[in-house]
Design goal:
- The structure is a single chain.
- This protein is an all-alpha fold.
- It has one domain: Up-down Bundle (Na+/H+ antiporter like fold), CATH 1.20.1530.20.
- The chain contains 19 helices and no strands.
- The longest helix is centred in the first third of the chain and has 32 residues.
- It is globular and about 65 Å long.
- The N and C termini lie far apart (about 75 Å).
- Keywords: Membrane, Transmembrane, Transmembrane helix.
C-alpha cells in the first residue's frame, strides 16, 4: 500500500503540473498579444452585451486587482528615486487633480455646454475630477514605458481626489450631483491600502525575480481583468447606437478628442523632463478612473453621462495599440541619450 502511494504521488504531481500548465500557457499567449489584446477588449465588450450584465457587479474587484498588479510590479528602486525628488511627482499630481478639472470646467462653462447638454457637461466634469485610472501604469508597462512615475503620481492624486472632487463639484456642478468626500475618500484609501498590502505580501512570498520571470502570464491576467471592467461599463453601447447612431458617434468623437487633447497637452507641458517620461505622464492623465466615480455616485447618472463613460473606453483601449510605436521610439531615444551621457560625463 505504501509502495502504491509512493508510486502514485509523482504521477499526481505530474497531473497537477499538466492541469496548471494549460491555463498558464493560455495566459502567457494572451500576455504576448500586448496592446493588440487591450484594443480587442473594447470591441468584445460591445459585441457581447450579456457579458456586461454578468460582470457589472465585479467592477470594484476588477479595479482592486488592476492596482494590486501595478503595485506588485513596481520598480522599488525607481520608486524611492522619485520620492527623493518629489518636485516632478508634485507637478504631475497638481496638474491632474487641479489643472485638468479647472480647465475642463471653465471651457465647458464658457462654451455653454452646461446649459445645452447637462448630461455631457456632467460626464466631462466627472472625468476631469477623477483620479487617473488604476490600470494606467499597467498599460504604460505594456507599451514598454517606465510605469513607476505614473504609479507614484496616481497614488498621490488618488489620495487628494476626495478633497479636490468636492471642491470642483461645488464650483461647477451645483445641485447636479451630490458627492460625499468622506465616503469617496474612505473607499479610495481602502482600495489603495488593501491592494498595496496584497501586493507586498505577494512580493514577499514569491520575490521580485519570480514576478519578473512570469511577466508574460501576469500581463495575460491583467488583460482578463481589463475585459471584466470594460464589459461591465460598455454592455449597453450597441443598444444606444441602434437607438441614436449619429448622437452616439458624436459622443464617441468627443471622447477621443478629450483623450488625445489631454495626452498631447500633458506631454508638451512636461517635455523638459524628457519625452519618454512626459509621454508616460500624459498617458496617466488621459486615462481617468471613471469606475470610481461611478461607484461614488452609485451609478445614479443621466443616460448621456453613462453613454459618454462607456465610449471613453474606446480611446483608453485603442490608444495603447496605436501609440506603442511612438512609445518604443521614445524609449529607444531615451536609452540612446542615457548611454551617450554615460560615455561623456563632462
Amino acid at each position: 500500500m505504501v509502495e502504491g502511494i509512493g508510486l502514485t504521488t509523482p504521477r499526481m504531481a505530474s497531473n497537477l503540473q499538466t492541469i496548471f500548465a494549460i491555463p498558464l500557457r493560455g495566459l502567457t499567449w494572451l500576455g504576448d498579444q500586448g496592446t493588440g489584446a487591450v484594443a480587442a477588449i473594447a470591441f468584445i465588450a460591445v459585441a457581447v452585451p450579456p457579458l456586461g450584465a454578468l460582470l457589472r457587479p465585479y467592477v470594484t474587484e476588477a479595479i482592486f486587482l488592476l492596482l494590486c498588479i501595478s503595485f506588485m510590479r513596481v520598480d522599488l528602486a525607481a520608486l524611492y528615486g522619485h520620492l527623493r525628488r518629489p518636485a516632478l511627482v508634485a507637478a504631475a499630481t497638481a496638474w491632474t487633480t487641479i489643472g485638468v478639472p479647472l480647465i475642463v470646467g471653465l471651457l465647458a462653462h464658457v462654451s455653454g455646454l452646461d446649459r445645452s447638454s447637462p448630461g455631457l457637461f456632467l460626464a466631462l466634469m466627472l472625468q476631469g475630477m477623477a483620479s487617473p485610472m488604476m490600470a494606467a501604469p499597467a498599460l504604460a508597462a505594456l507599451m514598454g514605458l517606465d510605469a513607476t512615475l505614473p504609479l507614484v503620481a496616481l497614488v498621490t492624486a488618488t489620495a487628494l481626489v476626495p478633497f479636490t472632487a468636492s471642491l470642483f463639484a461645488s464650483l461647477f456642478l451645483g445641485g447636479m450631483l451630490s458627492i460625499s468626500p468622506l465616503t469617496l475618500g474612505l473607499k479610495l484609501l481602502g482600495i489603495l491600502a488593501a491592494s498595496l498590502l496584497a501586493a507586498t505580501v505577494i512580493r514577499r512570498l514569491f520575490g521580485t525575480e519570480t514576478i519578473q520571470r512570469h511577466k508574460r502570464p501576469i500581463d495575460g491576467i491583467n488583460i482578463v481583468i481589463l475585459l471584466v471592467f470594460a464589459s461591465a461599463v460598455m454592455g449597453d453601447v450597441a443598444t444606444d447606437f441602434l437607438a441614436a447612431p449619429l448622437f452616439t458617434i458624436g459622443v464617441a468623437l468627443l471622447a477621443f478628442a478629450v483623450y488625445f487633447t489631454l495626452l498631447t497637452v500633458t506631454t508638451l507641458i512636461f517635455r523638459r523632463v524628457g519625452y519618454e517620461r512626459a509621454f508616460a505622464i500624459g498617458l496617466m492623465v488621459s486615462q481617468r478612473n471613471l469606475g470610481l466615480m461611478l461607484a461614488a455616485t452609485a451609478g445614479a447618472l443621466p443616460a448621456t453621462t453613462w453613454l459618454y463613460f462607456a465610449l471613453t473606453q474606446f480611446p483608453i483601449h485603442l490608444a495603447p495599440y496605436l501609440l506603442t510605436p511612438i512609445a518604443r521610439r521614445l524609449t529607444a531615444h531615451a536609452g540612446t541619450s542615457g548611454r551617450a551621457a554615460a560615455d561623456n560625463p563632462t
